[in-house]
Every structure is written in C-alpha cells, then in structure tokens.
Design a protein that fits this description.
The structure holds 2 protein chains of 2 kinds.
Chain A (H helix, E strand, L loop, with lengths): L19 H35 L4 H35 L1 H34 L8 H28 L6 H7 L1 H5 L4 H25 L5 H4 L5 H29 L7 H26 L9 H53 L16 H7 L15 H7 L2 H13 L27 H16 L1
Helix pairs in contact in A: 1-2, 1-4, 1-7, 1-11, 2-3, 3-4, 3-5, 4-7, 7-9, 9-10, 10-11, 13-15, 14-15
Chain B lengths: L12 H37 L2 H36 L1 H34 L9 H30 L4 H4 L2 H5 L4 H27 L5 H31 L2 H4 L2 H6 L7 H24 L11 H20 L3 E3 L3 E2 L8 H7 L1 H4 L13 H12 L14 H9 L6 H14 L10 H18 L14 H6 L5
Antiparallel strand pairs in B: 1-2
Helix pairs in contact in B: 1-2, 1-4, 1-7, 1-12, 2-3, 3-4, 4-7, 7-8, 7-12, 8-11, 11-12, 15-18, 17-18
Classes of the chains: A mainly alpha, B mainly alpha.
C-alpha cells in the first residue's frame, strides 16, 4: 500500500507563551494528575456497580457499594476540572494535529460533552436515590450501569483522538470512514486495555486508604467489615490489575506504530516497569502480612503510593517521548511550510495583486463608496437583487432626489408595489451612519445619477 | 485555513457553539456566580435569626446548584472549548496563544472553586455550632472565586470584540485591558446577582411551605435582593452600551431579529423592556407585600432575566461579525493579513486539505464545494431549511430561481460592503465563479422547480415596470 499523502498545514503566526520543552513537561505532569482522578472516577463507578450487584445477596456489599459511590462525587468533579489544564497545553503544543484529529472525528468527539454531563447527572441520581429506590434495585442498578457505560465510552473517544493526532496520514481516511475506523488504529485498543487496568489498580489502592484510614467510621458505615479484610481485598485488586499490566504493556508496545519508538522512550517504559515490579512486591507483603494489630496505614502504604506515582510519571514521560518522536518529521515539515507561507503572505501584503476587472465607471466621483455599499445588489443597467441604478436615478432626479435617496437608505420601506414582490423579494437593509455617513451617501447618490446618464 | 473540513449541515456550526455557550451562562450566572453569594447570605440570615428553616432552605438550594453546576455547568464550560475548537480551530488556537496565562490562572481559580463548593456542601451538616462561622466564610470564599473565574473569562470575550492596543503590541496585558472589559464585567456581575435573587424567588415554591411565615420572609428576602441589584444593573447596561462601537450597534437589529425580522427590532426591544418592567414590579411588590404576590409571578423575573441574558449573548456573538477576533481574524477563520495572498493566488492552492488545486471545467463543482467549505461553512448551511442556509439568503435576494450564477457571483464579490457582518470573499475570481456555480447547482437540486439552466438573461419585467412605479 502506498503511503497516504500527508496534509502539511502552516502554523499560527503567534509565539507560544512558553518554550515548547517547558510546555511538554507541564503537559506530562498535569496530564498524570488528571488521569489519576479519571481512574478514580471510573474505577469508583465500576466498583460501586460491582459491589451493588454482589449486595443483592449480601447487604454488606451493598453498604460498601454505597460508600464507594459517595467518593465518585468528589473524584469526578476533580477529573473534569483537572482535565482543563492538560487540554490547554495539548491544544497549545499540538494545535494543528490535535484540532485536526478533533475535526476528523467531529460529531463523536463532541459527544463526550453531553455523554459526560449525562453520566454525572445519572451518578448523582444513583447516589441520592439509594434509599428511595431500595425496593426497585433493578432500576437503581440500571441508573448506575448507564452512568458506568457512558464513562467507559468517553475515554475511548479521547484515546482515538490522541492516537489519531500522531498519525497525520490517517486523518482524512478516518474522517471519511467514520469514528469506528479510528478504533482500529494501531494501538488504540491496547491503550484502552492498559487504561482500564490502571483504573482498577489506582482505585484499589485509593480504597485501601479511604476505607482503612482512622478518620473513617468503619463500624458505623460498614458494620461487619474489618480494616484488615478491606485492606487485603483492595490490595489484591490493585495487585492483580497491575500484574495484568505486564501483559497489556508489552501488547501495547507491539501494536504501536514503530516510527515513534526510541531508546530513550523504551528506557523510561522499562524504568517504569521495574519500579512497578518493586511496588507490587511491597503490595504482596501487605496482603500476606499476618499481624493485624496496628490499624493505621503508615509508611508501608505511602511508599507504595510514591513508587506507583513514580511509575505513572515514567510511563507518562515515555508516552510524551513517543509522541514527540513520531510527530517530529511532521512538525519539521510544518515549520518549513510556515516559514514559506509567512514570506509569501508578507510579499502580497506589500504588493497586492491588482484588481482583475477594470470598471469604466471607476473614474467617477462616488464610485468607491458605491462599490463598497451598493454594488452587491445594484448593477448599473441590469436588475440584480434590487433595481438597476438607471431605474433608481429615474425615480430620484435632481438635487432633491439626492436628499430623498439619503432619507430612503436610512430607513428603507417595503418593495415599491405588492406585485413587485415576486421580482424583488428583499427589502433593502438600512444603511446606518456607521457604515456610510451622510456625505458619502450623497456622493453615492450623485454617482448613480451620473452613471445612469452614461 | 489549516484544518480538515468540518460542517454540521442543517444545524450549522454556529448553532453548536451558541447552544452550548448560552446554556453555560444560563447555568453559570445565576447558579454559580450569583448563587454562591445569595446562598451564603441565606445562611448568614439563618445564623442571625437563629432560624433553622433558613439554614435548611439554603442547604437545599445549594445542593441543587451543586448538582447542576458540577455536571451541566462544568461540562458545558468544557463544551465551549471543544465546540469552538471544532468550529473555528484557528481562532481558538490564536486566542490560546494570547491568553494562555489568563486561562491558566482561570484554571487554578476554577480548581479552587470546585474544591470550595465540594467543601461547602460536604461540611454543611458537620461544621455546626462553634464552627458555623467558619462554614459561612467558606461560602464567602466560594462566592469570591466564582466571580473571579467569570472576571477572567470576560476579558477574553471583550478582546474578541475589540482587541484595543493588542493589535499593535501583541502583549497579554493589552489584550486583557481591552476597552469593553470593565463595562461588560460590571454588567455580567449585576445580572448574575439579580438572577440569583430571581432563582431564590422561584425556589421559594419548593423551599418553603405555602402560606407559612417563612415563605413570606424568603419571598421578601429574594425580592429585596433583586430590587437592590437592578439599580446597578441598569447603570452597568448603560455604561456597556455607551462603549460598544457604534458600527456594532447597527448590527443589533439583525442579531436579534435575523435578516428577515430586522424590522421587528423595536418590537423585540419593547418586549424585553416590558418583561423587565414587569419583573421590577414583581420585585418591588414582593419586597413590600410578600403575602400578596401571586404564586405564578414567582417565575416571571427568572424567565425575563434568562431572556435578557440569551438576547445579550446572541447579540454580543453576532455584532462582532465579520470578525472572530476583531481586526485580526475573520469569522471564516482566515487572518486579515493573509487576505492579499489568497486573493492573489487562491484558497484552494493553499489549503492543505483541498483536493482541487487548479480549477478546470471537469472539477469546477467540486472546487466550488471546497471553496464553500473553506469560506462559508463556518457560519452557513446548505441543507434545505438549515440554520442560516445560504439558499435562504440568496432566495431572499434573488427569488426562488432559477438564479444566474453571474448574479450570485457578483453578490458574493461585494456583499461585504452592504452587509457589514459579512467578510470579504477571500479567494480569486475563478474560485468565486466556481462557488457561485456550485451554489446554483445545489439550489437546483434542493428546489427541483427551479432546476432550469442557470444562464437565462434577467427578466425584462424589472426594467419595464421601472419608470412609472411609485413607492
């Protein structure tokens, strides 16, 4: 298959507010922060749903589901608000490729707004109607399920966009064959799997902290549960999800288009994987820890969080390096074309092309103003939108005609006769003094009388 | 000019932004900016009077505002970004480069606002007794940050209408201190506050028992709030009107009445004035005689102010045309500085996503369609009955057809003169002719009755009836 033609555009002629490398570092940091809360939002929604289902048999699980659903109120608000910063940065750094990918997926891309808004409303409903719908569990589960489904779709649309923006050669093809073809772009589905596993791992770890911290009223909120049991359960979830990343990660590396790979990028990914293995070892230690004595989380938990935070940063940096590498040739072409465009544009600003058609009436006084304000609708001797100038001049002869024309254009009336409406469907729009002052309207009127004489 | 084509034929690209943006301000002004202060003042009244009913009503109103602003409000805010970037990526990309720090600061304020509203809601029941004063301070802080987010974004909206000194300097500070900034901010602030009072009045339906003393108290509180804010609102409106460039005001009739209904402008203004007058009457009589105020009138001020807000936003968005960034970039996304280039060498030659580079007889219609996509589709549609359809525009001038493509071409060549909100055609004459032919061909498809060949001579009827007719 021949390489598709890559559409190279010219960049905006305004400087970036910060050097590109600084913006890249900010993008990595702020995006990592955003994605953690996205993980917690989606993970909380999914786990609340799962425990509510289990709760049909055992009410203990239903209570747990309710506590988890309560956290989504906070995490989802932070996920959205923290997303704005990275959105600003990616739009700045990658204006052309990002907006091009957005346009290529057009309507579906925009759907993330109503989908997320609806998901949020549903999740509020799900949370606040827990007691009222206790007798109608199927309805309640359907509300939560609907919210979860929508929240599962939104990241998929995002992933298609950030993957598509790296592949300029595919923009037009995806635009023509529709959003679903974007799902089949190299790497999209593997990235999605990678994201879902990270979601479960992050949420598991978050719940270890949230449910076993001393300030949490365990006996009141979750009677029948123990801190050690909850700790084991959610560490296990985080551990299993993270172990599966050792399958999903290599799968993603293999399916990504190879043009973006570099040793530096692989070094960061490898470093991330190494640190992750270390964190998993600590997690395993927490799961098998026999003594349930001191219930505080302590340093054992926070060192795992710190280590996994480092993993996220290493992986996010690797991902940014991949993007920079794969887009480098395109960016170079864009820079070249932008230079050429700006030179050419400056040239024509200094030497505008002469008007193609010379009008014999151009020498008459008032011509320029008439051309500006009237000639879209009035030609000299043929009917265009309004009547020809010859006809107007015949209606308004002499100096008093000039004053009458001035009064008319300030406040035009309906077409002159009702039977003329088929011929002249439009009423003339009023010409305000901001558009043409009295003197220039008089000049135009004089021009019309003169043009009609010739 | 630098992005793949995108159009929503029928609804139109503009409508997408308009719906999202107007929905956003309709939620954000009353529920967030005005609502935060209003609710804090309700809480304060509860503390002063030692009356739990006030506290409960304030909490319920806050919960409502919280649910709506953090779902529909937040997402329509992001939606303005996404829709504007879809419809006019060049414009939003340029604004982003000028206003990055303003937007970044706004983002930090916005994060604070979200954290504060979560804290205000979550601690309402827990911070009671000795901590109640601290909780009230959370409410004041929320009100302050809600206002600051609006104050920052208003700078950008004012800039789009009138960049002021930025045109010459390209400095952020000159962009922010554009001449429309302070008047527009004053107007929005007072409007948001008045709307919050109107929301309180509607809300008393559900926040208080019918006929109770508390109902009366709440109605009086909301009405007094509205009445007191309506004075600065009137002053700020006058200030704002005084600084809007007069050439923009001349476009207001078209903005509110559309081209067809320009003549209805005085009637529309009268209708808005009557609605506002009735609302002022409701506010004053509710303040004086809360018991006598009929229940149906509770909703009137809120609806009237929503109408005013929607009319204001529509007008503001319309009157800045033909520009998207005044003096710098036209609504079609093409920079003024690039016009000489495209008018000399053509749009198609320079558009990276055009499939036609040079126009031939074989590709003329395809070329015309691509010129339409580049120069017109940001604002117009071609679907029959579509929003701001080009066919309807030309039918209003040329009748049902068949049209002559020469006439269409001539209108396109000079329409910017008489229709001040239209940008000049940005391409070369050959592209203009191809566009005209494509429009005529499309019109013939949509109006099968008008499918005659597009080259007939003008009807002699016009000239014949010319001489003796009178107006």
């Amino acid at each position: 298959m021949a390489d598709p033609i890559i559409p190279v555009a010219n960049d905006l002629p305004l400087a970036l507010p910060l050097p590109a490398p600084v913006l890249s570092i900010l993008l990595v940091l702020l995006f990592a922060l955003h994605i953690v809360f996205v993980n917690l939002m989606l993970g909380g929604t999914l786990l609340a749903l799962a425990f509510e289902l289990l709760g049909l048999r055992d009410p203990r699980h239903d209570r747990l589901a309710r506590v988890i659903a309560g956290t989504v109120t906070v995490t989802k608000s932070l996920a959205v608000v923290l997303g704005v910063g990275p959105l600003l940065l990616i739009s700045l750094l990658y204006t052309l490729p990002f907006y091009a990918a957005n346009r290529a997926t057009g309507q579906v891309w925009f759907l993330i707004v109503p989908m997320t808004a609806l998901a949020f409303l549903l999740s509020y409903w799900h949370k606040y109607a827990w007691d009222r719908l206790a007798g109608h569990k199927a309805v309640h589960l359907a509300i939560g399920g609907m919210a979860a489904l929508l929240l599962l779709l939104v990241p998929l649309v995002f992933l298609v966009n950030v993957q598509l923006m790296m592949l300029p050669g595919r923009w037009q093809a995806v635009q023509q064959s529709g959003f679903l073809s974007g799902l089949l772009l190299d790497g999209v589905l593997a990235r999605y799997l990678h994201f879902l596993l990270a979601t479960l791992a992050a949420t598991g770890l978050f719940l270890v902290w949230y449910l076993t911290r001393p300030a949490f009223d365990l006996a009141g909120e979750l009677p029948g549960e123990t801190r050690a049991g909850l700790r084991r359960r959610f560490y296990t979830l985080a551990l299993v999800a993270s172990l599966l990343q050792f399958v999903a990660g290599p799968l993603l590396l293999l399916t990504l288009p190879p043009q973006g790979l570099s040793w530096l990028m692989l070094l960061h990914i490898g470093l991330g994987a190494g640190l992750a293995a270390w964190a998993l070892w600590w997690m395993w230690g927490e799961i098998v820890r026999a003594d349930d004595g001191p219930e505080a989380l302590g340093w054992r938990f926070w060192r795992i969080v710190l280590m996994l935070g480092a993993v996220v940063l290493a992986m996010a940096t690797g991902r940014q390096l991949y993007r920079a590498t794969i887009l480098a040739p395109y960016q170079a072409q864009v820079a070249e074309r932008t230079r050429a465009h700006q030179q050419l544009s400056a040239h024509y600003r200094a030497h505008p092309a002469p008007a193609a058609e010379e009008d014999p009436l151009a020498a008459l006084p008032g011509y320029a103003a008439a051309r500006q304000s009237c000639m879209a609708c009035h030609a000299v001797d043929t009917r265009l939108v309004g009547p020809p100038m010859t006809e107007i001049a015949a209606l308004y002869p002499g100096p008093e005609g000039i004053e009458a024309m001035l009064r008319y254009v300030r406040q035009p009336t309906q077409p002159r006769k009702v039977r003329d409406r088929a011929e002249y469907p439009a009423t003339m729009p009023p010409v305000g003094p901001g558009q043409a002052d009295d003197a220039s309207v008089r000049a135009i009127a004089g021009f019309m009388q003169e043009a009609a004489r010739r | 000019m630098e992005f793949p084509f995108f159009e929503l034929d029928f609804a139109g690209n503009r409508l997408l932004i308009a719906v999202v943006a107007i929905l956003h301000v309709m939620i954000n002004h009353p529920l967030a900016v005005g609502g935060a202060l209003f609710i804090a003042m309700m809480e304060r009244r509860g503390i002063r009077l030692g009356d739990r009913q006030w506290d409960q009503a304030a909490y319920r109103l806050l919960l409502f505002c919280f649910i709506i602003t953090t779902s529909l409000g937040a997402l329509t805010g992001v939606g303005i970004w996404l829709s504007a970037a879809l419809v006019n990526p060049g414009a939003i990309g340029s604004l982003l480069r000028v206003f990055f720090w303003a937007w970044f600061a706004e983002w930090l304020v916005f994060i604070t606002e979200v954290l504060l509203i979560i804290a205000y809601v979550e601690t309402w029941k827990r911070w009671d007794g000795p901590r109640k004063a601290a909780h009230l301070r959370l409410g004041y802080a929320l009100a302050a940050f809600s206002w600051i987010t609006m104050a920052l974004i208003t700078a950008i909206l004012g800039f789009m209408m009138e960049p002021g000194a930025w045109q010459a300097s390209h400095r952020l500070v000159d962009g922010i201190l554009n001449p429309l900034y302070l008047p527009q901010l004053a107007f929005r602030t007072c409007l948001a506050m008045a709307m919050a009072g109107a929301m309180g009045l509607v809300g008393s339906w559900w926040l208080s028992e019918r006929g109770s003393a508390f109902r009366q108290d709440l109605v009086r509180f909301s009405c007094r709030w509205m009445a007191l804010w309506s004075l600065p609102l009137a002053a700020a409106s006058a200030w704002y009107l005084a600084v809007v460039p007069p050439v923009m005001l001349e476009r207001a009739p078209t903005a509110l009445g559309t081209m067809r209904g320009e003549g209805a402008y005085p009637a529309i203004l009268t209708a808005i004035a009557v609605l506002l007058g009735a609302s002022a009457y409701v506010a004053l009589s509710g303040w004086r005689w809360p018991r006598a105020l009929p229940r149906w009138s509770y909703a009137l001020p809120f609806l009237a102010l929503l109408v005013l807000l929607a009319a204001f936003e529509r007008t503001r968005e319309f009157v800045r045309k033909p520009w998207v960034i005044a003096g710098y970039m036209y609504a079609n996304g093409i920079r003024a500085e690039d016009y000489p280039l495209y008018q000399a060498e053509g749009l198609l030659k320079h558009h990276p996503f055009a499939s036609v580079r040079a126009i031939t007889d074989a590709n003329r219609l395809q070329a015309g369609q691509e010129v339409y996509q580049i120069a017109c589709a940001t604002c117009h549609t071609t679907a029959p009955g579509g929003v701001n359809s080009v066919h309807a525009r030309f039918e209003a001038m040329l009748g049902q057809g068949p049209w002559r493509s020469a006439a269409v071409g001539q209108i396109i060549a000079s329409m910017h003169g008489s229709r001040a909100y239209m940008p000049e055609f940005p391409g070369i004459p050959a592209e203009r002719r191809a566009l005209a032919e494509w429009l005529v061909a499309q019109h013939a498809i949509h109006r099968p009755g008008a499918a005659a060949p597009a080259t007939t001579t003008p009807s002699p009827a016009a000239a014949a009836t010319a001489a003796g007719t009178e107006r």
